[in-house]
Amino acid sequence: MHALTRVKRFQDVADIGYCASKKMFFYGFKLHIQITDQSLPMGYVVTAASYHDRIVAEEVMAQLPHPYTLGDKGYVSRPLQKKLHHEYGIAFWTPFCKNQQVSYSKEWEQWMRRKRKIVETTFSVLTDLFRLTAIRANSVDGFETALDGILLAYTLVSLELVEQ
């Protein structure tokens, strides 16, 4: 029996995606989130797992446009960078891929690694401590409520830590 024939929750909105870093397929959703330098979530979009990052990048960034935005390798797209700069005034930076013929200074690469660490740490905390990937809602409304609750709790804890 195929695994998807047993899926009961979110049959109409979720689907199968591929996680390149883990080299595995997964069923469900993908969270595209915009965070600040202080790891605070500012805007997000939830898509079916198969949506490519570039498809929703503009939607996420247009919620709260920031003049300098950093994305991961999934968002690498010269046309997207040009469009975001032209329409929203956003300088959209992504790490370069190994096959790209661009070179950045060592300082730039170190700065980019520090900023990426903030993003990676934020997602690790949301996943490990706030159990972001373990939402067991049975409806889209329940899923959205649980996600909003997790992001609110994370934000409140982060703000409390900043004040101390």
TrEMBL record:
<dbReference type="GO" id="GO:0004803">
    <property type="term" value="F:transposase activity"/>
</dbReference>
<protein>
    <submittedName>
        <fullName>DDE family transposase</fullName>
    </submittedName>
</protein>
<feature type="domain" description="Transposase IS4-like">
    <location>
        <begin position="15"/>
        <end position="156"/>
    </location>
</feature>
<dbReference type="InterPro" id="IPR002559">
    <property type="entry name" value="Transposase_11"/>
</dbReference>
<dbReference type="GO" id="GO:0006313">
    <property type="term" value="P:DNA transposition"/>
</dbReference>
<dbReference type="GO" id="GO:0003677">
    <property type="term" value="F:DNA binding"/>
</dbReference>
<dbReference type="Pfam" id="PF01609">
    <property type="entry name" value="DDE_Tnp_1"/>
</dbReference>
